[in-house]
Every structure is written in structure tokens, then in C-alpha cells.
Amino acid sequence: MAINVTIWNEYRHEKLKQDVHELYPDGIHAFIKSFIESDDVKVTLAALDDPDNGLPDDVLNNTDVLIWWGHMAHAEVPDDLVERIRQRVYAGMGFMPIHSGHHSKPFKAILGTTGNLMWGRNQKAVLWNVAPSHPITEGIPSHFELVEEMYGEPFYIPKPDDLLFTTWYEDGNVFRGGCTFTRGLGKIFYFHPGHETCKSFYNEYVQRIINNGIRWCAPAKLDSSFNGECIHQTSPVVG
Amino acid sequence: MAINVTIWNEYRHEKLKQDVHELYPDGIHAFIKSFIESDDVKVTLAALDDPDNGLPDDVLNNTDVLIWWGHMAHAEVPDDLVERIRQRVYAGMGFMPIHSGHHSKPFKAILGTTGNLMWGRNQKAVLWNVAPSHPITEGIPSHFELVEEMYGEPFYIPKPDDLLFTTWYEDGNVFRGGCTFTRGLGKIFYFHPGHETCKSFYNEYVQRIINNGIRWCAPAKLDSSFNGECIHQTSPVVG
Amino acid sequence: MAINVTIWNEYRHEKLKQDVHELYPDGIHAFIKSFIESDDVKVTLAALDDPDNGLPDDVLNNTDVLIWWGHMAHAEVPDDLVERIRQRVYAGMGFMPIHSGHHSKPFKAILGTTGNLMWGRNQKAVLWNVAPSHPITEGIPSHFELVEEMYGEPFYIPKPDDLLFTTWYEDGNVFRGGCTFTRGLGKIFYFHPGHETCKSFYNEYVQRIINNGIRWCAPAKLDSSFNGECIHQTSPVVG
Amino acid sequence: MAINVTIWNEYRHEKLKQDVHELYPDGIHAFIKSFIESDDVKVTLAALDDPDNGLPDDVLNNTDVLIWWGHMAHAEVPDDLVERIRQRVYAGMGFMPIHSGHHSKPFKAILGTTGNLMWGRNQKAVLWNVAPSHPITEGIPSHFELVEEMYGEPFYIPKPDDLLFTTWYEDGNVFRGGCTFTRGLGKIFYFHPGHETCKSFYNEYVQRIINNGIRWCAPAKLDSSFNGECIHQTSPVVG
Known about the structure:
Four copies of one chain form a homotetramer. Chain A is an alpha/beta fold. Chain A contains seven helices and nine strands, in the order E-H-H-H-E-H-E-H-E-H-E-E-E-E-E-H. Chain A starts with a strand and ends in a 22-residue tail after the last helix.
């Protein structure tokens, strides 16, 4: 059965800056769609300035994996939308915040973190695959290069379930740049490449990692005994 | 140097129910104080119905470790207080939610969780120490018994940094009843005993665990290079 | 492509004890084969008393996932076979020690542990699924019952990557009875049911869990840059 | 009560190479002793060419924390000594392998790993403190520089309990260079600086980290109920 992926994009930089527009003329979300859409991945596009910020109930509640790209307008995402996303993740929806999504309201609320980190200029970066057996790193070599905005330690995140990538930067920094988490029944994969003025989304390994991530984040098939409730008193399990 | 512990208690059950009043005549917070106060632990008491809910800035900002007991009035804790506590924890304050604190607003916001679980009647419980080398379990035997309200799996918490106790219940349930977490610079220890109609706080091992927990949760001595900021662009580290 | 599973069984109890023989007339390994063999799982049977203890190089080196059942004859497994298994796991082979495999030489050598635990009589056991989103627990309810030999805490294992099942026992014990680990490139899943005088392998959930485990433990598809070597000096990655 | 630390050193490079001899004229072990000995740390020196390889039972069995430096003569460490060390760690002794200790027999046997990694020339290294709240990083800034032999990913270690330091190298590599593990009742801290031709042991932060590590690795005070045995059948815990 196909995975329903919704790609949410702030979609502002692409309209405001010529260099970004040239890289991603239809928006970063449309570009991501171009390399993930397939027989088993159905894609919906959503943007901040769409009605209901692109995520009315009928879209959000039918999303298996939500990819999130935001940067300059984090503050404009309404709190009640954040809460609806949070509850969806805890109920099993996958969540993939990309790049500056580390500072988005959903990331901070879902994980329990400030998302703070160090940052610097665009520069040469080497991504090291430190979990070669993980499904998300399948087919990825021990390391590969990008030119990316520097995101560096200290990165104030909860300890990841799995650390997949550690990134090296020319300026002397390192970054836990690919991390998985579980919250409630939902799986979360944070991946740092994707600055609006960089070409990382054109990189074959970045594309492969995002595709692997979608499959890993897809909701588990749960037995009905997992209902997430905390309201009824339980009867004895054994007589 | 002494650790400043603030014990926050909802302090309602003790006033409303005769059996609770008899167990904890001056409140659960006052009873906890009686077994933690010492030369190196200074205690402040705080209650929901105190001015500023017991946690004005001058108290909260001078707290090293915040112990939290709440149950019937979770909803009355103001959201801005929750946010102030959250920021304090991320900046290094220790946090020890006890018993039904799993469903308190601060627990859910700080960790990123619904805190949902299964629950049942008061009954025989056996707490198994599954991390005997951890500082919080120092001096605690492999197992000990309590009579406690049943809290059981599934418990929808993020994967703990360390699982310290797993509790067995007469009715057939188990519970990850003692867990540590790190969020930002702050350390968190959740411990499940302490129902208002049970005598767990009188138990010597519960007392020892809470005392060990306070020392483990106390803020680390941090170098000034950890400022938690994410607002300035960083200069290159290497030339 | 099919997964090559080798089921290694000590295969002694079944020949020595009438009650075990009746439960598993062709051996525990043959019984496991009956519920895992399928279009995508090819099975080889191996036993301690076979030539080369059932695991000559041409079998071991073509095994994707090794299931291990041993109990009374741990000491008869030759050390050089243990070392060959260890190297295969570190190079990516999956390993599934079942029940008393916690005390087998391969388990202890591969993980780095004594494998010690508490044990007791056969009794009612409730297995709680504490990681409902994990691929190995797919389709498994929040809990189910078995009659099993008691294996209890303290269980002296390294902290698991993921704790999947916690088992409750009638006699007051608990056990981290389903755990995953990674060693080198290999994935390991330990699962406690399967005593020779119990009928756990007939249970539909036990069968499902073992089938899920095989798929989870199967070797990752690795890029050739992961060669596991430590002998050549590396050239600079960046110019 | 004082912590008994034994510093085991291969003690060969210092005798064979003039440049190493000049840096560490009495051996690396004697140099480490000079910055850790104190009122609460008692030090014993041990070397490969000492009788019983420096670790007869009366020394090993009275050691609280064993620091290990070995490189060119790993193969000369007898297997029965490795097994004695392994059992001591599982019974609670702390273990601190330094630098090329990642490839020592005790490291590989205790943890369950090949210890393999990438390595390269001595060069500029920046150590990033990624766990600022951990007792071992107390007083350590967000980052500091060394000149060190390059040790890089992929590093084939089990997932650490805590990742404390990630190291950046001039040549484009990164390394999980400070890691903690628990095995049985023993705590293990691996730390990568300390090549024989580098001056890392003269660095104030390296000295502080080793001193913090000793205190963190010191054996826990255990209740007698933790005896590590697996030989007696257990009586029911509850009636």
C-alpha cells in the first residue's frame, strides 16, 4: 500500500530571492516531490500561505509521513496547528524535519527541546555515515561531500535513539546531522542538509537518504490494543 | 555547596480526604522535606494555591532541583508557568516528577510525550533494580516491595537514557517505573511510587532513591562556552 | 531475494527426555523451520552433533541470520566455532539467540557479557510489548500470555539498543525478555521464550515475533566503503 | 575512601624511540600518575614486561579503576589475563582504555567489538563536548584543540551509553572519541587522545577529563543482593 507523504514548505525564500528561485523555481517542496514520488509514495504539497496553512484536517489526518521545511517564518505557524501535528505524531505519523526544521515549532514541541545549535557560513561539509546497518543509511557510502550552511555542536537535542550521520565542516565544526527519535507511536528523522541557497537536494545520496527515511518513518501496523488512552481503569490481567 | 530543592505539591488531596490527611497531615511536600533536608540539601516548599502557584521567579530561578507532585489539578497549572519551568530545565535545572507527575503539564512539555499509561487499583508491587551501577540505585537491593497504585505499560514515554526500575504488579502488569532523561542541560528523573493513599514515602528505599535522585539531578558545573544561544553566527573555529 | 536462515540446535533434550520428544519429535530446530520457511525464507538445519557441529564454512558463510538454541551442552561448542560466528556477526550476519542462548558462548562473546540472570520454575508469564512501533513487534498486541521457565532480573546484559518486551511472572519477577543489539555490522535479537518443556513455539505471537525478527536481523545492503578494516593508513578526505 | 587506580602501560615505545622517550621519560603511565595522584586517588603502575605482566591477582583484585595504554604489543597480552580483567569489569571494576586501547584484547573482549576504525597522520584535532551535563565533561568547554593521530569513522563499536566527545580532524574526518559503556556491573570510558608522539597528556582538559573519568568509573556501592550468579534456582519473590 502506498505511503502518503505530505511535504510542507514555508515557501517564502523561493519567492523573495532570485538565487533561491533559480535553484527551486516551483519551491523546495515541489523539488523534493520530484525525487520521492513513485508507485509506493503518493505526495501532497502544502505551504504556509495555503488555506489552513496547507494542513487542514483532511490532509493532516491522511498523512503517513510529514516532511517539514521552514526557516524565516517559524513564528507564523499557528500554535493549534503545532498541537494537531504533535498529536498526530504521538498517534503514529512519521515526521521528517529537514535543515532549519530544527528550530520549527513542531520539532521543539514534539521532541521536547529548544533545538538550539551553532551556525555559520555555507562551506564544504563531509557527512559521515556512523550507522551503516540502519535502514536509513542503506546504499550510502562511509562519507560524501556537500556544500552546506554550517550547523554545529552544541546541538541541544535529546539523546537520539540512533545517530546516523556526523557532519564535518571546513571551519572546524562537527554536527550530529542525522538522528532518529521515537515519540509515542511516531518515528522522527531529522536530517540537516537543505539550505535554500545550496544544491543539497540535487545530491543523489541526500535523495536516497530522504527516500529511505520516508520508508523508515512510515507508521507501524499496530494491534488495536494500542489505543494511547489513559482514562479508563484497567481490569486485572491475570486472575 | 548545598543543593536548593523546591518541592512543589498540588496539596489538595490532603485537605479533601481524611485518609490522605492522616498519612500526610502537613502535605506530601512537607513529608518529603522531612527525609531529604540535610546539611547539603536546602528545601523550599511550594503549593498550587500559594501566590504565583508557589513558583515566583525568585524561587524558580534559585531552584537546583524541582520535585513535582500533582494529580487532580494538572489543568490548573498555568501555561506560562509550564513554559518558565521548561526553560529552566533546558538551562540545567534538575526535575523530578513523582507518581502522577507523568501526566503533569511540565512533564509532557519538557519531555515531549502524552505521558499516557495504563492504571489500576492499589496492590502489591515489586520494584526491580535493573541498573545497579547507576548513582540513583546506590544502596538499593535487587528488589523491594510496596503497595502502590498500579501504573502499567504501555507507557508512552520517549526511550529513557537509563531504565533504573521495572515494577511488577500483582494484577499482571509491569511498568518502567524509574527512568532518567536529559533535556538541554537539565537532568530528569521520573519515579512512580507516591500515591496519596499509599505509604510509599515512608519506605526507606523510596526515601533513599529520592535522595540519590536529587544528587544526580543537580545541575552540572558548566563552562561558560555553553550558553544555549542560537542567535549569533559563529566564526570559524580553525584558521 | 530470499533470506538464508540457519537454525542451530543443540538437539539433545529432544533425544533424552520423553516429554520434550513428544513436544518436538524432530527437534526444536525442525519445529521452528515449520513456521518460518516461506518463499522469502530458506532454511538450513544444523545440530551440535552434526559434522563440524553443523556449521562448516560453506554453511556459516552463506547464512544471513543464525538462530541459536542451546542449553545443556554450551561447553561443547568449540571456541574456534564461536570465534568464526563472532566474526560473521561483526561482518553483518544477523544473530537470534533464543531462550537459554543467553548463556551460550556465542552470545557472551559477541555481546560482551556473562549473560547471567535469575531463573525459576515454569509458570504463567505475561509478555508486555513496550516498543509497539518497532518492526519486530508488528502485529503483536500490548500483551499476551505464555507458560514459561522464569528468567528474571538482574539480567547482566549491556544496555539494549531497543527494549521490546518486558515479561511478568507469577512468582513476582520481571525480565527484559526481548532486546535488540548492534555489534559491528550485525544485528542481534534476543528473545526469551522457548523452554524445551514448554509449548511457546506453538504460540502464534511467538511465531510472528520470530518471523519479524528474521527480517529485522537480515544483513543490511552495504556500500563497499564499509570494509571493516583497520590496517591501512587513510589518505586525507579533503584537500 | 580513596579510589585505587592501576595504570597499565605497554611501556615499549618510550624505550625504543628517542622522541617518545623525551616526551615521557619514565613512561606514559608515570606521566599519567603525575596528574591523577591525590588524596583520594591512590596509583599503582604496571607494565607489560613486569612479572605477571604487572597484574598479579593481588594487584588486579584491589584495583577500582584500570587505565590501559597499549599499542605495538597487543598480541603479547596473555589470553588468561584478558579473561581475568574481563571478569573483574563485569564484577564492577572501572575500565579506561586510552587511545590505541581501542584495539587491545581487553577492550575487544569486554565490549564485544573488533575495535576497528580508520586512522591517519598526526594533525590538528578539535574535540567537541556533546554531553555538557555528564560528570566526565564537568569543567570542559564546548571545544578545545589538540594535535593528535587521526582516528576516524567508521568506528565499529557498540552504540555507546553516552557519547561525550566528537572529534574533528583537519583531513576531513570525524570520530566518536569519548564514549561510555556499561558491562555487567562495570563502567567503561574510552577516550582517544594520547598518541605516544603527541603531547595530549600535557593538555589541561585531557588531564581533567581523565580525572573526571576515574571518579565516574569507580565501582558503585552495591547491595549484597547483586551477586552476579546464575547457578541457583530462585524461590518465588511473592507468596
